[in-house]
UniProtKB/TrEMBL annotation, chains A, B:
<comment type="function">
    <text>Catalyzes two activities which are involved in the cyclic version of arginine biosynthesis: the synthesis of N-acetylglutamate from glutamate and acetyl-CoA as the acetyl donor, and of ornithine by transacetylation between N(2)-acetylornithine and glutamate.</text>
</comment>
<comment type="pathway">
    <text>Amino-acid biosynthesis; L-arginine biosynthesis; L-ornithine and N-acetyl-L-glutamate from L-glutamate and N(2)-acetyl-L-ornithine (cyclic): step 1/1.</text>
</comment>
<dbReference type="InterPro" id="IPR002813">
    <property type="entry name" value="Arg_biosynth_ArgJ"/>
</dbReference>
<feature type="binding site">
    <location>
        <position position="181"/>
    </location>
    <ligand>
        <name>substrate</name>
    </ligand>
</feature>
<keyword id="KW-0963">Cytoplasm</keyword>
<keyword id="KW-0511">Multifunctional enzyme</keyword>
<feature type="binding site">
    <location>
        <position position="155"/>
    </location>
    <ligand>
        <name>substrate</name>
    </ligand>
</feature>
<keyword id="KW-0068">Autocatalytic cleavage</keyword>
<dbReference type="InterPro" id="IPR042195">
    <property type="entry name" value="ArgJ_beta_C"/>
</dbReference>
<feature type="site" description="Cleavage; by autolysis">
    <location>
        <begin position="191"/>
        <end position="192"/>
    </location>
</feature>
<dbReference type="Pfam" id="PF01960">
    <property type="entry name" value="ArgJ"/>
</dbReference>
<keyword id="KW-0055">Arginine biosynthesis</keyword>
<comment type="similarity">
    <text>Belongs to the ArgJ family.</text>
</comment>
<feature type="binding site">
    <location>
        <position position="192"/>
    </location>
    <ligand>
        <name>substrate</name>
    </ligand>
</feature>
<keyword id="KW-0028">Amino-acid biosynthesis</keyword>
<feature type="active site" description="Nucleophile">
    <location>
        <position position="192"/>
    </location>
</feature>
<feature type="binding site">
    <location>
        <position position="403"/>
    </location>
    <ligand>
        <name>substrate</name>
    </ligand>
</feature>
Length: 408, 408
């Protein structure tokens, strides 16, 4: 049961000129399942990516980094059912074999193909099935297939995740459309499981890597479901440069800001969608920390709250057991934190003042907010002017059920 | 259902000369419950403690630190049902009032009393009930009451936790007896919720603070249930100096080692008992990390594994989903970790070799180990000679049920 998230309608997702998408059933882990997705990019597209900081990063992540450095990307091949992680040297060979197979069919170099895998860890990728499935995926390729792609990359997700925005630049309509997947093993560190955002905007190619990083910082790097940073997190930004406006040479212009804002909004919605559809989630929680000395320490406190099993189960129970939040603030690792300066709010309700219970706080007010499906926890540290926030969900029986299923 | 843990028998717990214990029902949160425990120490006892590193430390922890610095401790007053944490200035006053009340009855100074509280956070401590309950607790004081004390400090624990050992020093019998409590909000950082170890050994007073730290490092600082460091963690070591052997001036002597080993064993058993009785625990798991450059990085990896909700739910399911362990190793924060050097074992089963699946590994072997109630996960990092270990439990439906209960 995703929290305030609906399946997107196909017609709400604008095609991005220069991007075609095909999906096939390759039988990678289970039969009759769309498990192979291909993005085909016209020549001239710029691509940048940010990837997991997990040192056990998957083989496809290692190959993606190499191939992105090479440039000229023309295709993305994404499989579900198998993460090709914890697979050693053999896994790297299989990821490269995937690229070679796609490159041969498309008549490009293997370095122009980026591989992505998601699914179970430490099992060999059935690369023969991917090779067999590729022709059908390529034959399926259409600009309008964004919803099919969002469905094709799902694993434990209950809903496909896709968002689209259009902005005007020099009187030209520019489109931004993206998809994401992920519901568990979610605590992106650079990017999430899989996120793809494409635009037809014409952007100076040198700007894209920094933009990808900045978009991730405002989206995937601010969500967590269970604190488990995946081996396969990948977030890819594509600019096809097809729109006929003047090239954006800086994001500090009205046109640059319009495009970047649209991209940031799509990235944020995609990242939040992962939390809304987090394994077992019944609530969507914004943890905002203000009054810190640095953004980093605000994030540190926000993640301590967002990862606390005690806080997350209290949200599941709609129990304003707010001492658990204060305890998490206390152990977040700020050595010189002064508890007598800390205030805590649940939405508009002022719960704790100067480190103690606010005398005006009434339990029924906390209870009212805790029953909502969307809640903002706001902590004021009283140490400075920095602020940051993360988005997370609660921790329910359903999470245990999903993850205690044999090999979910 | 605690894992391989039974209630201690009263007769297995040796009294410690110089320590008397009394318990009473003060009705602090619920009626008809032993919720007030008093330790009375003869003059001449040395006392040291280590306390939570949580910056939101509870009022009694702050008062304990002050009073320990003053020295000459004669009594410990422990209540359950209310943690007196997140209570600001008012909470400090209530903790001091508890000490004043006990000091008056015992004709000592308030600084000679240490207060301990455990229970719900952010509610005012009903200090009037403690004052009313104290005379009954004092009247109950007996050297043989260790089991009563272990029962008196229980909260969500399903079993009392107490261990006792005796060693010979210069032909004199020296006793070490201790109790602990705690089942949730357990990731001690210096010490756990409440742990008390007393000995009648004669130990040079200057040695006690460092000993308390060392004992905590080998016990309470190596266990975790849910990663939530409590506001009230307190571990206290008492030496009554009643045994008639030559004073121990160093632990680097046969007598010193014998006493320290007995104390370390009792502390370790008490800490492990907390994990065995962890909220919802069905398995007791030792996470051992070897081949690190430093003990600290071994602990970092061990805690990443021990805190991963995905790893913990896989243990609950007896599912050898070992990629989840590798993923946790990868995100533990060692920046220059080389995944191709990592080996993973489940008890005697060699699961992963050089970062990939061990070709000789068979799923049924992993399955066999995962079904056991006690499991050792061993990770070899291949970076150096350091090693360390932590003890933890799995993550079950029962954990969610316990913590989603209104105000557990």
């Amino acid at each position: 049961m995703a929290v305030n998230l609906n399946a997107p309608r196909a017609e709400s997702l604008h095609a991005v000129a220069g991007v075609r998408i095909g999906v096939a059933e390759a039988g990678i882990r289970k039969a009759n399942r769309k498990d192979l997705t291909v993005f085909l990019l016209d020549e001239g597209a710029a691509v940048a990516g940010v990837f997991t900081q997990n040192r056990f990063c998957a083989a496809p992540v290692q190959v993606c980094r190499e191939h992105l450095a090479h440039g000229g990307v023309r295709a993305l091949v994404i499989n579900t059912g198998n993460a090709n992680a914890g697979t050693g040297e053999d896994g790297l060979v299989r990821a490269r074999t995937t690229c070679i197979a796609a490159a041969r069919l498309l008549d490009v170099a293997p370095e122009q193909v980026l591989p992505f895998s998601t699914g179970v860890i430490m099992e060999p990728l059935p690369v023969d099935r991917i090779e067999k499935g590729l022709p059908a995926a390529l034959a399926d390729a259409q600009p309008a297939h964004w919803l099919r792609a969002a469905e094709g990359i799902m694993t434990t997700d209950t809903l496909p995740k896709a968002f689209s925005r259009q902005v005007q630049v020099d009187g030209v309509t520019v489109t931004v459309t993206g998809i994401s997947k992920g519901a568990g093993m979610i605590r992106p560190n650079m990017a999430t499981m899989l996120g793809f955002v494409a635009t037809d905007a014409k952007i100076a190619p040198g700007l894209l890597p920094a933009l990808a990083l900045e978009l991730a910082e405002g989206s995937f790097n601010r969500v967590t479901v269970d604190g488990d940073t995946s081996t396969n997190d990948s977030f890819v930004v594509i600019a096809t440069n097809k729109a006929r406006h003047a090239e954006i040479a800086s994001f500090d212009t009205p046109a640059g800001r319009a495009v970047k804002d649209a991209m940031q909004e799509v990235a944020r919605l995609l990242a939040q969608a992962i939390v809304r559809d987090g394994e077992g989630a019944t609530k969507f929680i914004t943890v905002r920390v203000e009054g810190g000395q640095t953004g980093a320490e605000c994030r540190q406190v926000a993640y301590a709250i967002a990862h606390s099993p005690l806080v997350k189960t209290a949200f599941f129970a709609s129990d304003p057991n707010l001492g658990r939040i204060l305890a998490a603030v206390g152990y977040a690792g700020i050595a010189d934190l002064d508890q007598t300066k800390i205030d805590l709010y649940l939405d508009d309700v002022h719960v704790a003042r100067q480190g103690g219970r606010n005398p005006a706080y009434r339990e029924e007010d906390g209870q009212r907010v805790m029953k909502q499906a969307e809640i903002t926890v706001r902590v004021v540290l009283g140490r400075g002017d920095a602020a940051d926030q993360v988005w997370t969900c609660d921790f329910s029986h359903e999470y245990v059920t999903i993850n205690a299923d044999y090999r979910s």
